[in-house]
Amino acid sequence: MMIKRFLKESMSVKKDSHQRSLIKAFGYRTMGIILLATLTWIFTRDFIQMGLITGVYHGLSVIGYYIYERLWTYIRWVKMNSNQLNQLYWNEGLTSRDIEGK
User: Fold this and answer.
1) How many domains does the chain have?
2) Helix (H, G, I), strand (E, B) or coil at 1
């Protein structure tokens, strides 16, 4: 059953802390800046062009990501209360053992 597998997998996911997520985000962005700056330098051999291309690209990336995140606020997620979840169990023939994987 697809719902059984989805619920089992989603219940067992461990979430990163906010601090870990921030460190990963800064690390990812830093890696991107270094990579683009290096490639731009290889092709242009000009520090001004390298800085402009890298700065504009990553500035636009941050703006684009912000807009993307704000658009997600308009997407409604379904949240189930315990009665709705019990109804799902009943309709799908699930038990708590299915969810817990025991």
Assistant:
1) 1
2) coil
